[in-house]
Amino acid sequence: MACVLRALCVDAHDPAGLARFWAALLGWETTGRGELTPTDDTGFGLRFTRARDPKATKNRMHFDLTSATPDDQRATVEKAIALGGGHVDIGQRPDEQHVVLADPEGNEFCVIEAGNQFLADCGPVGALACDGTRAVGLFWQAALDWPLVWDQGEETAIRSPRGGTKITWGGPPLDPRVGRDRVRFDLAPLDTDLPTELARLVALGATARTEEAGAATLVDPDGNEFHLR
Description:
Elements: E1 3-12, H1 15-26, E2 29-30, E3 35-37, E4 45-50, E5 61-65, H2 70-82, E6 86-87, E7 99-102, E8 108-111, E9 125-130, H3 134-144, E10 148-152, E11 155-159, E12 166-169, E13 183-189, H4 194-204, E14 207-212, E15 215-219, E16 225-228
Parallel strand pairs: 1-4, 5-8, 9-12, 13-16
Antiparallel strand pairs: 1-13, 2-3, 3-4, 5-9, 6-7, 7-8, 10-11, 11-12, 14-15, 15-16
Protein name: Bleomycin resistance protein
Domain Glyoxalase-like: 8-112, 128-228
Organism: Actinokineospora bangkokensis
């Protein structure tokens, strides 16, 4: 058994505006309800919801966008800035070749240099890079039933058997958590009902926080909140 990663849920003060930014940057389709459907091989969508609190710290997840050539990388950076994004300093070294940007509400993402071998066979959204331990990588491998494609030291990565975007965890030390995570997984049961899938995820190491009719909120072994509905 497994569950399906339906979307990455992002808190936003202007959900519709942020959806327009990402739809234009990625070329994805929008439903008009703050939801985006990929037109590439990413394998999961984006869903923007109204934020409760202001962004207080660096997100624990961010996209790594790929580049075919140096000109392609420059074009992606220029497009993001023209759409309302901007450069951001998260401690990257001057000699690093990737470019760190943020969307109009400060959500970080990277435009990776051409020739990156780890993302060589990935589409435009090469990876969802996460702050997390090896234990949480193994939890999500089992939860989604995606194979490990990297497992070295505390660093892990998984990828759908169908290909598409990789999900990576960089290992400790973890950034401190300040308030609620603004970026979260939104899951759906696969071939089972919600109570059965909820029990399976808890057995794998998740902790249930709330359960309502047709939905549950949990945290994974690293304390990252996610939704099952």
